[in-house]
Amino acid sequence: MTTPLLELDDVHQTYRPKGSIFSRGPAGLVHAISGVTLTINSGETVGVVGESGCGKSTLARMVVGIEDPKQGAVRWKGADVSTLRGPERKAFHRSIQLIFQDPFASLDPRRTVGQSIAEGILAHDLVPGDAVEDRVQQLLRQVGLLPVHARRYPHEFSGGQLQRVGIARALGVEPEVLVCDEPVSALDVSVRAQVLNLLNQLKTELGLAIVFIAHDLDVVQHMSDRIVTMYLGKIVEQGPCDAVYESAGHPYTRALLSAVPKKPAPGYRIDRVVLEGDPPSPINPPPGCPFHTRCYAAIAKCSTVVPPSVDLGDGHRATCHLAEEVSRSRVGQPYSVV
Ligand code: SF4
Question: Going from the N-terminus, what domains does the chain have, and what CATH number goes with each?
Answer without folding.
Answer: 6-224 (3.40.50.300), 242-338 (no CATH)
